[in-house]
From TrEMBL:
Keywords associated with the record: Glycosidase, Hydrolase
Descriptive protein name: 6-phospho-beta-glucosidase
Keyword Isomerase: no
Top-level taxon in the UniProt lineage: Bacteria
GO molecular function: 6-phospho-beta-glucosidase activity
Pfam families according to UniProt: Glyco_hydro_1 (PF00232)
UniProt-annotated catalytic positions: E374
Keyword presence, Lyase: no
Root EC class: hydrolase
EC number, UniProt record: 3.2.1.86
Amino acid sequence: MSKLPNGFLWGGAVAAHQFEGGWNKGGKGLSIADVMTAGSNTQAREITDGLVPGKNYPNHEAIDFYDHFHEDVQLFADLGLKCFRTSIAWTRIFPNGDENEPNEAGLKFYDDLFDDLLAHGIEPVITLSHFEMPYHLVKEYGGWRNREMIRFFVKFARVVLERYRNKVKYWMTFNEINNQTGLNEWGLFTNSGIKITADEDAEKLMYQAAHYETVASALVVKMGHEINPEFKIGCMMAMGPTYPATPAPQDVMKAERTMQAGYWLADIQCKGKYPNWLKRYFERHHFALDITEADLNILAVGTVDYIGFSYYASHVTKTTDNEPDDYMTPGQNPEVKNPALERSDWGWEIDPVGLRYALNWFSDRYDLPLFIVENGLGAFDEKDADGKIHDDYRIDYLRKHIEQMELAVDVDGVQLMGYTPWGFIDLVSAGTGQMDKRYGLIYVDKNDAGVGTLKREKKLSFDWFKKVIATNGADL
Ligand code: BGP
């Protein structure tokens, strides 16, 4: 018997820039994702200053969903998806971001996509900003370091919330908004379009940009509810619980602070206010941030309806010599291996029980419905002699996570809306910019060099997940 509620949203998740391709079709403008080259499995992606001829920009074609979507939606329907999570590319709607009028061809593309999904009984779940924004806004305005972004983003959001008011019910504002708190160049650029210059304080800039994003998010939540009171609008957090390396109280305290430092953006979006420890941190560090009374008022009223989150791995932390009193060493935590866990080919710790922990942690802290909008295993897939990918390792990963998710619902009483495995159709990895880090239940014939027929084929995990959906998670 199923342990999950009726109407549970089984689905699959992707993001526009990682799978659509068509980077310059239908009047689309250049986005920040379009100026990121492929990296390698050990080397970070390069962010170029505008387009550089001859560079390999894997997001440009990606898997060309733009020209394959009718065929793909058919496959999604065959899988039995109840919902499909993707993002709207801001640059299809406002190619530069600061125009007055939207681009009709871009709006029409999503109309056609949503109509096709709905005709197959698949509910669209839409992220407004998934690691991309118009590159023009970065060049001309400096990205989210500039308060002007709030106005541009709200304008973009108004256009799409109004246009799709009767087609899309589930929305999220910023994908993995807390991803930038790690303070590396990649996190700051993909989330906020910010490249740090030598004379800037990365930490202060991150807090400022994130503040503007939360204000924009709150304004959009409020506006969305006015446009259609039926809308469910969530935040989207990257969730990776941090455990203490030892039972030493200072390690436990550090793990706790690491969690606080990872999820204050959820505090703001769910509770409508900054946590006390962070207000004090700003004071102690003399960060004179641009946070106005009007901002705080909008944060208080623009709280979200649910928490969408990604879950891939857990982490471990331990104290270092001369640990500061506030335990804050952003981006400098030594990596500690968890001896209890195995790792993926990319070194991500595989921790199904951590998903149950995460669900409980969010549920207790915010008492809101939750939605697992990303989870999955990035792996090298090889075809067997029969020409099929027998990805038992992926089935094993998903099964163990779904088991823990069901315990969280059935035993712990967590309110869970749905589960959408990440990259359920192979796509470009956000981190490496490569194709060979595959998450899909559907294989796409394309390699890291950009060569392939783009043919879609079902992996073994496709049939397995189809059965899981058909039994509402009873038959794993
Ligand atoms: C999340 C992002 C996704 C996705 C996923 C897997 O951080 O929201 O866009 O790519 O991680 O990461 P990667 O592609 O680097 O394996």
